[in-house]
Inverse folding.
């Protein structure tokens, strides 16, 4: 007999069953999840706009990139750990604790007295953000069944769309009319409301199973993955890829990863158990998310500057061009449920990957200087593609495990996406810088001596003070470099497609996920 998900949703946790909150409470919890997600989603966009004012007040211009890097690094490496903790001790304590840590970090950031203190407090923020990213999506999987999750992921994705537009606007407004300190203090009322709603309306029974997390394995996993990401973030930026620094960092990272695997293999409750890397569905889904994460970074890094420097639009228009991806992403995410229920999770993601490939292809055929509407069309296609990739892959892996493993697979899925973003940042920066340096090196003799250094090209284009022939050459050079970046995006999307083709077509969904029938395959 089928169970109605309008009244109750059974959560499977070994021999443990629990009932999710009633529908009227689920609305309040969803509101709390969206508000909590907004804290993490808006953080980088709101900070990036106010960086000039922050640097002007605190100094330390050479360190400002670490305001973002430390956040990305710590958030990413802690996601799997929080996913494991959510399975062991419940979602509610992990999410509320993570939110409190995030708010404490936000308040501390507002009190920063120099760039070093700001970077340290951003690290504390990131410790909380890791819990938010891991647990919000896990709770969404707990509260809603397989038919409903696509719509809910659409709502959660819309938070990122709103943040992409509201973040820069708020950051600019606070920096210009108030103080940059408010970009961190604004988190406090939002966070307090979300924590209150979670405390009042989210009720879960923790499984009565004794757990013991061995911190040696967890610490090794955090250190090894952090070192790997540190090398990826610094390579090609602070030092060349083929340098002693890179060799040392990556060698040490490989050694630590090997030790971590050995230690965790003897751990009865490892943070990342071996079965995650042996399950074809999970491997395929996680590699796909890593590929999507890498693909996302090309437009994020270069499209706004391209729009301003080559196409000639203003900063606000450039921001809206980038944010146009946020229109189609939540829409396709919400609509993906109908697709994956009919053609399956993998095939829905395949359709999304094809759309991402088309989006990259549109840019590659973009003429110089390129109309703004073509830039928007690439973003619309990419957003639609990403929505059809991310939601089926996340919902798919959540649906093949019970409650006691859902946090783990959700954390691994999110970790793969952010690790992919780090890889994409490194790869696309290397491509762009290589093409830019080559173009400057082979510049016409008549203008070669008048050209700026590679790290001053964007500044020169933005100032528009250079001679017309210099300006034209630099615009063409940026146009060419961006095309190579999007060619890299295209190749990355094709590799993602290959990952999906090796992923099983049918996902073994557990009973009670949709129809209550055991062994349902979707």
């Amino acid at each position: 007999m089928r169970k109605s998900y309008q009244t109750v949703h059974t959560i499977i946790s070994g021999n443990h069953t629990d009932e999710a909150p009633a529908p009227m409470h689920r609305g309040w919890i969803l509101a709390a999840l969206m508000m909590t997600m907004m804290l993490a989603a808006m953080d980088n966009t709101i900070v990036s706009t106010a960086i000039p004012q922050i640097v002007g007040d605190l100094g330390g211009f050479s360190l400002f990139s670490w305001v973002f890097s430390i956040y990305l690094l710590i958030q990413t490496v802690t996601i799997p750990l929080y996913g494991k903790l959510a399975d062991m001790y419940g979602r509610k304590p992990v999410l509320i604790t993570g939110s409190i840590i995030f708010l404490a970090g936000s308040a501390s950031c507002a009190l920063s007295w120099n760039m070093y203190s700001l970077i340290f407090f951003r690290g504390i923020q990131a410790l909380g953000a890791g819990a938010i990213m891991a647990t919000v999506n896990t709770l969404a999987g707990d509260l809603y069944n397989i038919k409903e999750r696509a719509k809910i992921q659409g709502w959660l994705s819309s938070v990122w769309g709103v943040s992409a537009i509201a973040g820069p606007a708020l950051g600019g407004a606070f920096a210009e009319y108030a103080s940059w300190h408010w970009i961190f203090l604004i988190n406090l009322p939002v966070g307090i409301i979300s924590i209150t709603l979670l405390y009042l309306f989210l009720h879960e029974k923790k499984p009565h199973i004794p757990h013991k997390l061995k911190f040696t394995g967890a610490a090794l996993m955090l250190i090894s993955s952090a070192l790997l990401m540190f090398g990826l973030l610094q390579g090609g930026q602070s030092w060349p890829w083929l340098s002693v620094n890179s060799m040392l960092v990556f060698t040490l990272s490989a050694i630590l990863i090997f030790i971590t695997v050995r230690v965790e293999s003897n751990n009865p409750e490892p943070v990342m158990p071996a079965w995650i890397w042996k399950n074809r569905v999970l491997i395929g889904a996680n590699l796909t998310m890593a590929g999507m994460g890498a693909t996302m970074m090309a437009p994020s890094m270069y499209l706004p500057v391209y729009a301003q420097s080559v196409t000639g639009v203003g900063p606000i228009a450039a921001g809206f061009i980038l944010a146009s991806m946020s229109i189609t992403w939540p829409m396709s995410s919400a609509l993906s449920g109908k697709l994956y229920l009919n053609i399956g999770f993998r095939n829905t993601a395949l359709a999304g990957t094809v759309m991402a490939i088309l989006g990259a292809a549109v840019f590659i055929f973009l003429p110089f200087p390129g109309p703004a509407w073509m830039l928007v069309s690439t973003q619309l296609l990419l957003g639609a593609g990403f929505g059809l990739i991310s939601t089926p892959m996340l919902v798919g892996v959540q649906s093949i495990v019970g409650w006691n493993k859902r946090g783990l697979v959700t954390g691994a899925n999110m970790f793969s996406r952010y690790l992919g973003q780090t890889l994409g940042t490194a790869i696309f920066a290397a491509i762009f810088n290589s093409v830019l340096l080559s173009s400057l090196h082979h510049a016409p003799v008549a203008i070669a001596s008048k050209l700026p250094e590679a790290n001053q090209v964007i500044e020169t284009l933005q100032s528009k003070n250079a001679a017309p022939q210099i300006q034209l050459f630099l615009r063409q050079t940026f146009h060419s470099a961006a095309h190579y970046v999007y060619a890299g995006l295209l190749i990355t999307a094709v590799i993602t497609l290959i990952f999906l083709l090796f992923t099983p077509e049918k996902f073994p969904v557990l009973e009670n996920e949709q129809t209550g029938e055991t062994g349902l395959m979707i």
In short: The beta strands are 10-13, 16-19. The two ends are 20 Å apart (CA to CA).
